[in-house]
């Protein structure tokens, strides 16, 4: 047991000592481009524009947002089918953290959603992206919802 605890502590301390890999700003901009394009499509309710920046078979997932607190999950194609200009909303992210390794990237950021001039949701977005033929696309989006902790930036 003592050896196991020692190994665990060594692993934790070693992981903390690893330097953070910086994502060059031009690479970060390329990764955030499809994320920002999705937000632009949400503002206009343009499903066709949204689908240009995602893998339609990827998922939009919201833990605890379905009936009885169940996870709500739908494909991007299903999500886009529900989009209409009259249900458009404004989503913004703040201080995104981007991690990348070759053709895989993740974006983690606090978000707010405003609809009809009113703050209606906030929490954290987690996007995972894949680069294919030199273009980044969003595979999945998972987001939390935490209105109690919502602060206007």
TrEMBL record:
| Keyword entries, A-Z | Signal
Q: Which SUPFAM superfamilies match?
A: NTF2-like
Q: Which residues form the signal peptide?
A: 1-19
Q: Which domain of life is it from?
A: Bacteria
What is the name of the protein in this document?
A: Nuclear transport factor 2 family protein
